[in-house]
Amino acid sequence: MPFVETMTPRERVMAALAGEPVDRPPLCNPTSVFTVELMDLVEAPFPESARIPELCARLAATGHTEMGFDSTYHHATIVQESSALGCDVQWEQKDNWPSVRMGDPIWKGPDDIQIPPGFLEHPDVQCVIKATEILKSELGDEVAIIGKTMGPWTLAYHVFGVQQFLLMSIDEPDMALRCLHLLKEVAVLHGEAQIAAGADALTFPDHATGDLVSGDYYKQFLLEIHQEMVERIHAPLILHICGRTLDRMDYIAQSGMSAFHFDSKNDPQESMDVVDGRIALVGNINNPETLYSGKPEDVRREVYKCMDAGVNMIAPECAVPLSARLENVLEIPRAVKAWCEENYVEGAASA
Amino acid sequence: MSGATTGSISGVIEVLERYGRCLELVPLDPNFNDISVGLYEKDGVATVWTFSRIEGVEVRIRKIRDQLVALGGFDAVADAHNQMRAPCGIIHPRPTKFLMMQAVEKDPNFSLPDGEVAVKDLRTGMMLGVDSKEVDGRVAYYVKADGEAPNKANRLRAVTSGFVRYGEMDKTEDGGVSFTCGYRHDELVRLILPYARNVTRVEDMLEADSLRGQMTTGTLGFSPPT
After folding, report:
1. Which of A60, B11, B34, B190 is 20 to 30 A from A18 in CA distance terms?
2. Entry pTM
3. Chain A to chain B, count of Cβ pairs less than 8 Å apart?
4. Residue A260 near residue A206, CB atoms below 8 Å
5. To probe the interface with B, which of A31, A323, A337 has the most B CB atoms within 10 Å?
């Protein structure tokens, strides 16, 4: 019997983020799914579409209108807040992500941290806020509009430099913690502004990654701050941390966040076992080997692995590579629907 | 009104159904408004495609198709400005990467030299070339070198391995290589030789290419490079 969808994309995403039953796992992308070909399709190339709200929204809309995801995501990389704080940004070309030049940090310690009075009026912040408004007005009844506010750990990398901040966390952990508490205010300010503009949920990237810091670091520096963010930011939050995170998933499950966007370096079943229903998981289709270099059958295999494990929402593990093949990205929704056809029985709903 | 929901003239699904899978994608065409250019393949027909609708794009796509025909030995599909077929019926995927780089990124009037295949080996100073012969209906190619160098035989074997890697060719029992289809593809051999002679450098180039546009902790600067 053919599988029949009974929810709108937005209903599906919001229900999954609330831990409620869904007709099928949403295709919820907490990071971008656009590529250079989609930029050409809608005449919204980088870096312009990272800085002009109309182009930003138009490009993000393709995630739903062309790729078939249940949500849109319009943040072209992770630089907006840091740009507004005064960091130098390399805007790059169409085929590469804008990035913060961290080799030349703007601050040295907590006494330097000041959120500029015009933070929300900065053009790079305004770009995402206005793009949120556009997406909400044009697609918001149908699709979940996912915004993003950077967590304090990533912001600390940007404003202090990665090495400097990591050394601070070792040599002067109290000072590092003070920095994080000051920087978390940026996350609240930016997040609440996007919610006011119409964002249904926010990705909360905070790169306490397995490559550089231990799982205990997450508990020591971030767990309480993330719990506080859940209280203070009035929309579902999707924590995003790249890399191996199994060693901190138990802590992450205690954060109170609605979902955790996890990397393909973590086995879906093992991850589901660790979080044990305390937080929804979203992910974790591999980018470099699968979406960039692989074939649709490789994508389908990974989607099925996630679906078999009961992963709550299906998405690429992080921003889709800008030169990824569209047939691979398109295979994600196709595979989700095919899995449902093969596995669902009439009337079933999953939480 | 941003036009976020405006339907596209050729939607992605429609294009993929019409032209098939994307064999190769060049993200930026430096010779025409930085458009992306893909080579799609379906039922043995290769199509040069861009989603861009910038004025003049059709002329540019025709030019790229013509370059691919000239550099790769394809047959242009009649009455189409953007399509071609391989004479053997198979679009060999791996050489296509290098072919697209040359056809899109190099000067539009670029051409490979005529005559005997000959490229200087930067490592030894020898002149590298390729001979061919047909055995049992299959064409085999043999790397040769003019000049002397220590371990010359090893060097020839290394370049031959480069053909296996970048041409997706099979080694023959007598030290040569042949395409999987067994056909003669002299144009592709001419194209691949400069890459086959310097695998280390080409691998570095391909690695850098593949990392561009990837968002990882490494490319973001949040983890040591691997």
Report:
1. A60
2. 0.93
3. 144
4. no
5. A323
